[in-house]
Amino acid sequence: MHYVSTRATSASAARNPQLFSDILLGGLAPDGGLYLPTEYPQVTGAELDAWRKLSYAELAYEILRKFATDIPDAALKALTARTYTPEVYRNARAGESAAEITPLRVLEEGERGTLVLQALSNGPTLAFKDMAMQLLGNLFEYALAKNNDELNIFGATSGDTGSAAEYAMRGKRGVRVFMLSPHKKMSAFQTAQMFSLQDPNIFNIAVEGVFDDCQDLVKAVSNDLSFKARHKIGTVNSINWARVVAQVVYYFRGYLAATTANSQKVSFTVPSGNFGNICAGHIARMMGLPIDKLVAATNENDVLDEFFRTGVYRVRKSSETFHTSSPSMDISKASNFERFIYELVGRDADRTHDLFRKVETHGGFDLSGAPGSDGDEHQDVGKFGFQSGRSTHADRLATIRDVAGKYGIVIDTHTADGVKVAREHMQPGVPMIVLETALAAKFNETIVEALGKDADRPAGFENIEALPQRFVVMPPDVDRMKAYISEHTGL
Ligand SMILES: *Cc1c(COP(=O)(O)O)cnc(C)c1O
Fold first, then answer.
1. Are 437 and 128 in contact (CB under 8 A)?
2. Are 440 and 461 in contact (CB under 8 A)?
Protein backbone atom coordinates (compact mmCIF):
# COMPACT_ATOMS: atom_id res chain seq x y z
CA MET A 1 0.00 0.00 0.00
CA HIS A 2 1.45 3.31 -1.12
CA TYR A 3 0.48 6.90 -0.38
CA VAL A 4 0.49 9.99 -2.58
CA SER A 5 -0.15 13.66 -1.99
CA THR A 6 -3.44 15.19 -3.14
CA ARG A 7 -1.28 17.76 -4.97
CA ALA A 8 1.30 15.43 -6.50
CA THR A 9 1.76 15.48 -10.27
CA SER A 10 1.72 11.97 -11.74
CA ALA A 11 5.49 12.16 -12.21
CA SER A 12 6.27 13.17 -8.64
CA ALA A 13 3.80 10.60 -7.29
CA ALA A 14 5.55 7.84 -9.20
CA ARG A 15 8.93 9.07 -8.01
CA ASN A 16 7.95 9.33 -4.34
CA PRO A 17 5.55 6.58 -3.35
CA GLN A 18 5.39 6.62 0.43
CA LEU A 19 4.78 3.78 2.85
CA PHE A 20 2.63 4.06 5.98
CA SER A 21 5.70 4.36 8.24
CA ASP A 22 7.14 7.12 6.03
CA ILE A 23 4.14 9.40 6.63
CA LEU A 24 3.40 8.32 10.22
CA LEU A 25 5.43 11.02 11.95
CA GLY A 26 4.79 13.83 9.45
CA GLY A 27 1.97 16.19 8.59
CA LEU A 28 1.51 17.88 5.22
CA ALA A 29 3.22 16.47 2.14
CA PRO A 30 6.17 18.64 1.00
CA ASP A 31 4.00 20.04 -1.85
CA GLY A 32 1.40 21.26 0.70
CA GLY A 33 -1.11 18.48 -0.06
CA LEU A 34 -2.45 15.70 2.16
CA TYR A 35 -1.55 12.03 1.87
CA LEU A 36 -4.03 9.43 0.66
CA PRO A 37 -3.59 5.81 -0.43
CA THR A 38 -3.19 5.35 -4.18
CA GLU A 39 -6.36 3.25 -4.00
CA TYR A 40 -8.70 2.19 -1.20
CA PRO A 41 -8.44 -1.42 -0.07
CA GLN A 42 -11.77 -3.21 -0.66
CA VAL A 43 -13.66 -5.25 1.89
CA THR A 44 -15.57 -8.35 0.77
CA GLY A 45 -18.87 -9.66 2.11
CA ALA A 46 -17.07 -12.70 3.49
CA GLU A 47 -14.71 -10.45 5.45
CA LEU A 48 -17.61 -8.42 6.86
CA ASP A 49 -19.30 -11.66 7.95
CA ALA A 50 -16.15 -12.84 9.70
CA TRP A 51 -15.63 -9.44 11.34
CA ARG A 52 -19.05 -9.56 13.03
CA LYS A 53 -17.56 -11.88 15.66
CA LEU A 54 -14.39 -9.90 16.40
CA SER A 55 -13.53 -7.76 19.37
CA TYR A 56 -12.84 -4.08 18.70
CA ALA A 57 -9.08 -4.64 18.95
CA GLU A 58 -9.20 -7.55 16.49
CA LEU A 59 -11.31 -5.53 14.07
CA ALA A 60 -8.85 -2.62 14.33
CA TYR A 61 -6.03 -4.99 13.48
CA GLU A 62 -7.84 -6.38 10.40
CA ILE A 63 -8.56 -2.90 9.04
CA LEU A 64 -5.22 -1.31 9.86
CA ARG A 65 -3.21 -4.10 8.28
CA LYS A 66 -4.79 -3.17 4.95
CA PHE A 67 -3.25 0.30 5.27
CA ALA A 68 -0.06 -0.25 7.28
CA THR A 69 1.33 -3.00 5.08
CA ASP A 70 4.92 -2.20 6.08
CA ILE A 71 4.33 -2.93 9.79
CA PRO A 72 4.69 -6.64 10.58
CA ASP A 73 1.36 -8.31 11.44
CA ALA A 74 2.54 -9.46 14.86
CA ALA A 75 3.59 -5.93 15.84
CA LEU A 76 0.32 -4.43 14.63
CA LYS A 77 -1.67 -7.05 16.46
CA ALA A 78 0.15 -6.27 19.71
CA LEU A 79 -0.28 -2.51 19.21
CA THR A 80 -4.04 -2.70 18.57
CA ALA A 81 -4.55 -5.16 21.46
CA ARG A 82 -2.77 -2.78 23.82
CA THR A 83 -4.70 0.27 22.57
CA TYR A 84 -8.30 -0.88 22.48
CA THR A 85 -8.88 -2.34 25.94
CA PRO A 86 -11.72 -1.75 28.41
CA GLU A 87 -9.15 -0.29 30.86
CA VAL A 88 -8.45 2.58 28.43
CA TYR A 89 -12.13 3.12 27.49
CA ARG A 90 -13.34 2.75 31.06
CA ASN A 91 -15.62 5.81 31.20
CA ALA A 92 -18.60 3.94 29.78
CA ARG A 93 -21.94 5.07 31.20
CA ALA A 94 -24.17 2.89 33.33
CA GLY A 95 -25.84 0.44 30.95
CA GLU A 96 -22.97 0.55 28.45
CA SER A 97 -20.38 -2.21 28.16
CA ALA A 98 -16.79 -0.90 28.34
CA ALA A 99 -15.63 -4.08 26.54
CA GLU A 100 -17.47 -2.88 23.44
CA ILE A 101 -15.07 0.14 23.33
CA THR A 102 -17.64 2.14 21.27
CA PRO A 103 -20.99 0.85 22.61
CA LEU A 104 -24.21 1.58 20.73
CA ARG A 105 -27.40 2.75 22.39
CA VAL A 106 -30.76 2.92 20.60
CA LEU A 107 -32.48 6.20 21.43
CA GLU A 108 -35.55 5.94 19.28
CA GLU A 109 -37.22 3.23 17.21
CA GLY A 110 -40.32 4.38 15.44
CA GLU A 111 -42.10 5.23 12.22
CA ARG A 112 -39.51 7.80 11.29
CA GLY A 113 -36.69 5.27 11.65
CA THR A 114 -34.14 4.25 14.24
CA LEU A 115 -31.86 6.73 15.97
CA VAL A 116 -28.72 5.29 17.57
CA LEU A 117 -25.86 6.84 19.55
CA GLN A 118 -22.36 5.38 19.19
CA ALA A 119 -20.22 6.33 22.21
CA LEU A 120 -16.73 7.31 21.08
CA SER A 121 -15.86 9.30 24.18
CA ASN A 122 -15.20 6.73 26.87
CA GLY A 123 -11.41 7.14 26.68
CA PRO A 124 -9.16 9.01 29.13
CA THR A 125 -10.01 12.57 27.99
CA LEU A 126 -13.75 12.03 27.39
CA ALA A 127 -13.67 12.98 23.70
CA PHE A 128 -13.51 10.93 20.50
CA LYS A 129 -9.98 12.14 19.73
CA ASP A 130 -8.71 9.47 22.13
CA MET A 131 -9.87 6.78 19.66
CA ALA A 132 -7.10 7.69 17.22
CA MET A 133 -4.60 9.43 19.48
CA GLN A 134 -4.19 6.43 21.80
CA LEU A 135 -3.19 4.31 18.82
CA LEU A 136 -0.86 7.04 17.58
CA GLY A 137 0.97 7.06 20.93
CA ASN A 138 1.65 3.34 20.67
CA LEU A 139 2.54 3.53 16.96
CA PHE A 140 4.99 6.38 17.61
CA GLU A 141 6.69 4.52 20.44
CA TYR A 142 7.02 1.45 18.22
CA ALA A 143 8.41 3.35 15.22
CA LEU A 144 10.84 5.42 17.30
CA ALA A 145 12.18 2.40 19.17
CA LYS A 146 12.75 0.60 15.88
CA ASN A 147 14.85 3.47 14.52
CA ASN A 148 16.36 4.38 17.88
CA ASP A 149 15.00 7.86 17.31
CA GLU A 150 13.12 10.47 19.29
CA LEU A 151 10.30 12.93 18.55
CA ASN A 152 9.23 16.21 20.10
CA ILE A 153 5.58 16.94 19.47
CA PHE A 154 4.88 20.65 19.36
CA GLY A 155 1.32 21.89 19.11
CA ALA A 156 -1.31 24.38 20.16
CA THR A 157 -4.68 23.56 21.64
CA SER A 158 -7.84 25.24 22.80
CA GLY A 159 -9.05 22.04 24.43
CA ASP A 160 -9.68 18.49 23.19
CA THR A 161 -6.70 17.85 20.91
CA GLY A 162 -4.04 18.85 23.41
CA SER A 163 -5.34 16.71 26.22
CA ALA A 164 -5.89 13.70 23.92
CA ALA A 165 -2.30 14.03 22.67
CA GLU A 166 -0.86 14.34 26.18
CA TYR A 167 -2.77 11.34 27.55
CA ALA A 168 -1.69 9.29 24.52
CA MET A 169 1.98 10.25 24.77
CA ARG A 170 2.50 10.36 28.54
CA GLY A 171 5.26 8.03 29.60
CA LYS A 172 6.05 6.98 26.00
CA ARG A 173 9.74 6.35 25.38
CA GLY A 174 11.34 8.69 22.86
CA VAL A 175 8.42 11.15 22.81
CA ARG A 176 8.06 14.55 24.46
CA VAL A 177 5.03 16.82 24.12
CA PHE A 178 5.25 20.62 24.20
CA MET A 179 1.67 21.86 24.22
CA LEU A 180 0.75 25.55 24.05
CA SER A 181 -2.59 26.78 25.30
CA PRO A 182 -3.94 30.29 25.88
CA HIS A 183 -3.31 31.21 29.55
CA LYS A 184 -6.55 31.22 31.58
CA LYS A 185 -8.74 30.82 28.46
CA MET A 186 -9.65 27.12 28.68
CA SER A 187 -12.40 25.83 30.97
CA ALA A 188 -11.30 24.84 34.48
CA PHE A 189 -12.01 21.18 33.66
CA GLN A 190 -9.96 21.17 30.45
CA THR A 191 -7.09 23.05 32.11
CA ALA A 192 -7.06 20.57 34.98
CA GLN A 193 -7.09 17.61 32.60
CA MET A 194 -3.90 18.79 30.93
CA PHE A 195 -2.04 20.55 33.71
CA SER A 196 -2.52 17.84 36.32
CA LEU A 197 -0.34 15.44 34.32
CA GLN A 198 2.95 15.02 36.18
CA ASP A 199 4.77 12.92 33.56
CA PRO A 200 8.25 14.31 32.90
CA ASN A 201 7.82 14.01 29.10
CA ILE A 202 4.81 16.37 29.07
CA PHE A 203 5.38 20.14 28.97
CA ASN A 204 2.37 22.43 29.33
CA ILE A 205 3.05 25.99 28.24
CA ALA A 206 0.39 28.58 29.03
CA VAL A 207 0.88 31.44 26.59
CA GLU A 208 -0.12 34.95 27.66
CA GLY A 209 -2.44 35.53 24.71
CA VAL A 210 -5.28 33.92 22.77
CA PHE A 211 -5.38 30.65 20.81
CA ASP A 212 -4.26 32.42 17.60
CA ASP A 213 -1.09 33.59 19.39
CA CYS A 214 -0.36 29.96 20.27
CA GLN A 215 -0.90 28.85 16.68
CA ASP A 216 1.31 31.67 15.38
CA LEU A 217 4.10 30.49 17.69
CA VAL A 218 3.78 26.93 16.41
CA LYS A 219 3.94 28.20 12.82
CA ALA A 220 6.92 30.46 13.52
CA VAL A 221 8.92 27.67 15.15
CA SER A 222 7.91 25.12 12.46
CA ASN A 223 8.87 27.51 9.67
CA ASP A 224 12.45 27.53 10.96
CA LEU A 225 13.28 24.32 9.12
CA SER A 226 16.76 23.87 10.56
CA PHE A 227 15.51 24.34 14.15
CA LYS A 228 12.67 21.93 13.39
CA ALA A 229 15.01 19.26 12.02
CA ARG A 230 17.64 19.65 14.75
CA HIS A 231 15.03 19.36 17.51
CA LYS A 232 13.12 16.54 15.79
CA ILE A 233 9.85 18.44 15.95
CA GLY A 234 6.64 16.82 14.75
CA THR A 235 2.91 17.42 15.01
CA VAL A 236 -0.19 15.38 15.70
CA ASN A 237 -2.86 17.61 14.15
CA SER A 238 -5.99 16.28 12.52
CA ILE A 239 -4.46 15.93 9.05
CA ASN A 240 -2.17 13.14 10.29
CA TRP A 241 -3.03 10.12 8.14
CA ALA A 242 -2.70 7.56 10.94
CA ARG A 243 -5.28 9.49 12.96
CA VAL A 244 -7.73 9.43 10.07
CA VAL A 245 -7.26 5.74 9.41
CA ALA A 246 -7.64 4.77 13.08
CA GLN A 247 -11.05 6.46 12.95
CA VAL A 248 -12.16 4.26 10.02
CA VAL A 249 -12.42 1.34 12.46
CA TYR A 250 -15.37 2.66 14.47
CA TYR A 251 -17.50 3.13 11.35
CA PHE A 252 -17.08 -0.59 10.65
CA ARG A 253 -17.77 -1.34 14.28
CA GLY A 254 -20.93 0.80 14.31
CA TYR A 255 -22.20 -0.80 11.12
CA LEU A 256 -21.53 -4.35 12.32
CA ALA A 257 -23.16 -3.71 15.70
CA ALA A 258 -26.29 -2.13 14.18
CA THR A 259 -26.93 -4.78 11.49
CA THR A 260 -27.22 -8.54 11.19
CA ALA A 261 -26.63 -8.98 7.43
CA ASN A 262 -24.54 -7.19 4.83
CA SER A 263 -27.61 -6.43 2.71
CA GLN A 264 -28.56 -3.82 5.36
CA LYS A 265 -27.38 -0.23 5.27
CA VAL A 266 -26.84 2.39 7.94
CA SER A 267 -26.27 6.15 7.87
CA PHE A 268 -24.01 8.20 10.11
CA THR A 269 -24.35 11.76 11.36
CA VAL A 270 -21.04 13.27 12.41
CA PRO A 271 -20.54 16.47 14.46
CA SER A 272 -17.93 18.07 12.20
CA GLY A 273 -15.27 20.75 12.31
CA ASN A 274 -12.03 19.96 10.51
CA PHE A 275 -13.64 17.10 8.53
CA GLY A 276 -11.27 14.52 10.08
CA ASN A 277 -13.92 12.34 11.68
CA ILE A 278 -16.35 12.26 8.74
CA CYS A 279 -13.44 11.82 6.29
CA ALA A 280 -12.83 8.46 7.97
CA GLY A 281 -16.49 7.59 7.30
CA HIS A 282 -16.02 8.51 3.66
CA ILE A 283 -13.01 6.18 3.48
CA ALA A 284 -14.98 3.34 5.10
CA ARG A 285 -17.69 3.86 2.48
CA MET A 286 -15.12 3.86 -0.33
CA MET A 287 -13.81 0.53 1.02
CA GLY A 288 -17.24 -0.95 0.44
CA LEU A 289 -18.88 -0.63 3.87
CA PRO A 290 -22.64 -0.37 3.19
CA ILE A 291 -23.09 3.22 4.37
CA ASP A 292 -26.09 5.00 2.89
CA LYS A 293 -25.70 8.63 4.01
CA LEU A 294 -22.87 10.51 5.68
CA VAL A 295 -24.40 13.60 7.24
CA ALA A 296 -22.06 16.41 8.31
CA ALA A 297 -23.49 18.36 11.25
CA THR A 298 -22.00 21.80 11.85
CA ASN A 299 -22.66 24.49 14.43
CA GLU A 300 -22.94 28.20 13.57
CA ASN A 301 -19.53 27.83 11.86
CA ASP A 302 -21.20 26.28 8.84
CA VAL A 303 -18.43 26.23 6.21
CA LEU A 304 -19.10 22.56 5.46
CA ASP A 305 -22.90 22.79 5.49
CA GLU A 306 -22.67 25.67 3.04
CA PHE A 307 -20.50 23.60 0.66
CA PHE A 308 -22.71 20.53 0.76
CA ARG A 309 -25.83 22.62 0.17
CA THR A 310 -24.49 24.97 -2.51
CA GLY A 311 -21.13 23.81 -3.89
CA VAL A 312 -19.44 26.98 -2.62
CA TYR A 313 -16.49 26.46 -0.26
CA ARG A 314 -15.80 29.77 1.48
CA VAL A 315 -13.34 29.84 4.37
CA ARG A 316 -14.05 32.37 7.09
CA LYS A 317 -11.83 35.10 8.51
CA SER A 318 -11.06 34.75 12.19
CA SER A 319 -13.30 37.79 12.80
CA GLU A 320 -16.16 35.83 11.15
CA THR A 321 -15.62 32.71 13.27
CA PHE A 322 -18.13 32.35 16.10
CA HIS A 323 -17.20 31.23 19.61
CA THR A 324 -19.94 28.73 20.28
CA SER A 325 -21.02 26.32 22.98
CA SER A 326 -19.72 23.44 20.81
CA PRO A 327 -16.22 24.96 20.69
CA SER A 328 -14.39 21.96 19.22
CA MET A 329 -16.28 22.61 15.97
CA ASP A 330 -15.41 26.33 15.84
CA ILE A 331 -13.34 26.29 12.65
CA SER A 332 -12.75 28.84 9.92
CA LYS A 333 -11.67 26.22 7.36
CA ALA A 334 -11.81 22.43 7.36
CA SER A 335 -8.24 21.17 7.25
CA ASN A 336 -9.05 17.64 6.00
CA PHE A 337 -11.52 18.75 3.34
CA GLU A 338 -8.92 18.52 0.57
CA ARG A 339 -8.99 14.72 0.95
CA PHE A 340 -12.62 14.68 -0.17
CA ILE A 341 -12.31 17.34 -2.87
CA TYR A 342 -9.49 15.32 -4.46
CA GLU A 343 -11.90 12.39 -4.71
CA LEU A 344 -14.74 14.60 -5.94
CA VAL A 345 -12.66 15.96 -8.84
CA GLY A 346 -11.71 12.43 -9.93
CA ARG A 347 -8.32 12.26 -8.14
CA ASP A 348 -7.03 15.06 -10.34
CA ALA A 349 -4.07 16.45 -8.36
CA ASP A 350 -3.62 19.46 -10.66
CA ARG A 351 -7.25 20.50 -10.17
CA THR A 352 -6.96 19.96 -6.43
CA HIS A 353 -3.81 22.05 -6.37
CA ASP A 354 -5.49 24.89 -8.29
CA LEU A 355 -8.62 24.83 -6.12
CA PHE A 356 -6.66 25.01 -2.85
CA ARG A 357 -4.38 27.70 -4.27
CA LYS A 358 -7.57 29.62 -4.86
CA VAL A 359 -8.52 29.10 -1.22
CA GLU A 360 -5.28 30.92 -0.33
CA THR A 361 -5.65 33.72 -2.88
CA HIS A 362 -9.45 34.17 -3.02
CA GLY A 363 -10.69 32.57 0.20
CA GLY A 364 -12.48 29.68 -1.48
CA PHE A 365 -13.85 28.08 -4.63
CA ASP A 366 -17.17 27.36 -6.29
CA LEU A 367 -18.08 23.96 -7.76
CA SER A 368 -21.78 24.80 -8.21
CA GLY A 369 -21.62 24.85 -12.00
CA ALA A 370 -22.97 28.42 -12.08
CA PRO A 371 -21.58 30.76 -14.78
CA GLY A 372 -18.02 31.73 -13.82
CA SER A 373 -17.68 28.97 -11.22
CA ASP A 374 -14.64 26.69 -10.91
CA GLY A 375 -16.50 23.52 -11.90
CA ASP A 376 -19.77 21.62 -11.55
CA GLU A 377 -18.69 18.68 -9.39
CA HIS A 378 -21.12 19.65 -6.63
CA GLN A 379 -23.70 17.63 -8.59
CA ASP A 380 -21.68 14.48 -7.72
CA VAL A 381 -21.67 15.01 -3.95
CA GLY A 382 -24.70 12.70 -3.61
CA LYS A 383 -22.77 9.81 -5.19
CA PHE A 384 -20.51 9.90 -2.16
CA GLY A 385 -23.51 9.86 0.18
CA PHE A 386 -22.89 13.29 1.68
CA GLN A 387 -25.61 15.44 3.21
CA SER A 388 -25.42 18.15 5.84
CA GLY A 389 -27.17 20.33 8.35
CA ARG A 390 -26.54 23.09 10.86
CA SER A 391 -27.35 23.61 14.52
CA THR A 392 -27.31 26.66 16.79
CA HIS A 393 -26.94 27.34 20.50
CA ALA A 394 -30.74 27.34 20.91
CA ASP A 395 -30.91 23.99 19.06
CA ARG A 396 -28.25 22.54 21.36
CA LEU A 397 -30.12 23.56 24.50
CA ALA A 398 -33.42 22.21 23.16
CA THR A 399 -31.84 18.93 22.02
CA ILE A 400 -29.99 18.34 25.32
CA ARG A 401 -33.28 18.91 27.18
CA ASP A 402 -35.27 16.73 24.82
CA VAL A 403 -32.82 13.80 24.90
CA ALA A 404 -32.52 13.99 28.69
CA GLY A 405 -36.30 14.09 29.07
CA LYS A 406 -37.18 11.35 26.59
CA TYR A 407 -34.30 8.89 27.01
CA GLY A 408 -32.79 9.80 30.37
CA ILE A 409 -29.28 10.47 29.11
CA VAL A 410 -27.30 13.69 29.08
CA ILE A 411 -25.43 14.34 25.83
CA ASP A 412 -22.73 16.94 25.26
CA THR A 413 -23.11 20.03 23.10
CA HIS A 414 -21.30 18.63 20.01
CA THR A 415 -23.33 15.43 20.10
CA ALA A 416 -26.45 17.59 20.45
CA ASP A 417 -25.57 19.28 17.15
CA GLY A 418 -25.36 15.77 15.68
CA VAL A 419 -28.71 14.60 17.07
CA LYS A 420 -30.46 17.78 15.91
CA VAL A 421 -29.22 17.34 12.34
CA ALA A 422 -29.65 13.53 12.34
CA ARG A 423 -33.34 13.92 13.07
CA GLU A 424 -33.68 15.92 9.85
CA HIS A 425 -32.18 13.09 7.81
CA MET A 426 -33.72 9.92 9.27
CA GLN A 427 -35.26 7.32 6.97
CA PRO A 428 -37.33 4.26 7.85
CA GLY A 429 -35.32 1.05 7.38
CA VAL A 430 -31.88 2.65 7.60
CA PRO A 431 -30.60 3.08 11.17
CA MET A 432 -29.13 6.56 11.73
CA ILE A 433 -26.04 6.38 13.94
CA VAL A 434 -24.97 9.64 15.60
CA LEU A 435 -21.35 9.67 16.69
CA GLU A 436 -21.06 10.87 20.29
CA THR A 437 -17.89 12.96 20.17
CA ALA A 438 -17.58 14.04 23.83
CA LEU A 439 -19.08 13.37 27.24
CA ALA A 440 -21.23 16.09 28.76
CA ALA A 441 -18.96 16.63 31.79
CA LYS A 442 -16.43 18.32 29.51
CA PHE A 443 -18.86 21.10 28.57
CA ASN A 444 -20.73 21.43 31.83
CA GLU A 445 -21.47 25.18 31.58
CA THR A 446 -23.97 24.55 28.76
CA ILE A 447 -25.44 21.50 30.49
CA VAL A 448 -26.23 23.70 33.49
CA GLU A 449 -27.80 26.23 31.14
CA ALA A 450 -29.95 23.54 29.49
CA LEU A 451 -30.90 21.38 32.46
CA GLY A 452 -30.29 23.53 35.54
CA LYS A 453 -27.95 20.90 37.00
CA ASP A 454 -24.42 19.60 36.55
CA ALA A 455 -23.52 16.79 34.17
CA ASP A 456 -22.40 13.59 35.88
CA ARG A 457 -18.65 13.14 36.06
CA PRO A 458 -17.15 9.72 35.44
CA ALA A 459 -15.36 8.14 38.41
CA GLY A 460 -11.93 9.63 39.01
CA PHE A 461 -12.82 13.08 37.63
CA GLU A 462 -14.72 14.31 40.72
CA ASN A 463 -12.04 16.61 42.09
CA ILE A 464 -9.81 17.05 39.08
CA GLU A 465 -9.65 20.86 39.49
CA ALA A 466 -8.10 20.42 42.95
CA LEU A 467 -5.13 18.32 41.77
CA PRO A 468 -1.67 19.92 41.70
CA GLN A 469 -0.88 21.47 38.31
CA ARG A 470 2.37 21.45 36.36
CA PHE A 471 2.80 24.20 33.73
CA VAL A 472 4.85 27.26 32.84
CA VAL A 473 3.54 30.67 31.76
CA MET A 474 5.29 32.38 28.88
CA PRO A 475 4.78 35.52 26.77
CA PRO A 476 4.16 34.95 23.03
CA ASP A 477 7.86 35.24 22.18
CA VAL A 478 9.37 32.95 19.52
CA ASP A 479 12.94 33.13 20.84
CA ARG A 480 11.89 32.30 24.41
CA MET A 481 9.88 29.37 23.07
CA LYS A 482 12.83 28.04 21.10
CA ALA A 483 15.12 28.41 24.10
CA TYR A 484 12.63 26.49 26.26
CA ILE A 485 12.45 23.65 23.73
CA SER A 486 16.26 23.48 23.38
CA GLU A 487 16.70 23.40 27.12
CA HIS A 488 14.21 20.58 27.66
CA THR A 489 15.14 18.42 24.68
CA GLY A 490 18.89 18.74 25.25
CA LEU A 491 19.24 18.95 21.45
C1 LIG B 1 -12.55 17.59 17.36
C2 LIG B 1 -13.99 17.49 17.73
C3 LIG B 1 -15.02 17.55 16.77
C4 LIG B 1 -14.76 17.82 15.29
O5 LIG B 1 -14.10 16.75 14.65
P6 LIG B 1 -13.41 16.97 13.22
O7 LIG B 1 -12.63 15.75 12.98
O8 LIG B 1 -12.53 18.20 13.39
O9 LIG B 1 -14.48 17.19 12.23
C10 LIG B 1 -16.34 17.38 17.19
N11 LIG B 1 -16.63 17.19 18.49
C12 LIG B 1 -15.67 17.14 19.45
C13 LIG B 1 -16.08 16.96 20.88
C14 LIG B 1 -14.31 17.28 19.11
O15 LIG B 1 -13.38 17.23 20.06
1. yes
2. no
Residue whose CA lies nearest to ligand 1 atom number 7:
276
The ligand 1 atom at the shortest distance from the C-alpha of residue 278 is: 9
Atom of ligand 1 nearest to the CA of 414: 11
Nearest CA to ligand 1 atom 8: 274
Predicted local confidence at residue 123, as pLDDT: 97
Instruction: Map residue 101 onto helix, strand or coil.
Output: coil
Task: Single out the catalytic residue among 53, 66, 77, 129.
Answer: 129
For ligand 1, whether the C-beta of 281 sits within 6 Å is no
Which regions of 254-404 does DSSP assign to beta strands (E)? 266-271, 291-298, 312-314, 364-366, 386-390
Looking at the CA of residue 160, tell me the nearest atom of ligand 1: 15
Distances from the Cα of 313 to the Cα of 239, 316, 358, 389, angstroms = 18, 10, 11, 15
For residue 425, the model assigns a pLDDT of: 98
Please list the ranges in the chain whose pLDDT falls under 70: 14
129 labelled catalytic: yes
Q: Is 328 in the pocket of ligand 1 (CB under 6 A)?
A: yes
Query: How many A from CA of 361 to the centre of ligand 1?
Result: 27
Q: Which CATH architecture has domain 100-125+243-451?
A: 3-Layer(aba) Sandwich (3.40)
In short, whether 160's Cβ falls inside 6 Å of ligand 1 is yes
* Contacting residues for 182 by C-beta, under 8 A, at least 6 apart: 158, 206, 207, 209, 210, 211, 213, 214
Q: Is the CB of 18 under 6 A from ligand 1?
A: no
How many angstroms separate the Cα of 81 from the Cα of each of 56, 135, 166?
A: 9, 10, 20
Residue 243 amino acid letter: R
Q: What predicted TM-score, i.e. pTM, was given to this entire model? A: 0.96
Supply the pLDDT for residue 118: 98
pLDDT at 490: 82
Question: Would the CB of 274 count as within 6 Å of ligand 1?
Answer: yes
Q: What is the pLDDT of residue 12?
A: 77
CB 120 within 8 A of CB 250: yes
Q: pLDDT tens digit string along 385-419?
A: 999 999 999 999 999 999 999 999 999 999 999 99
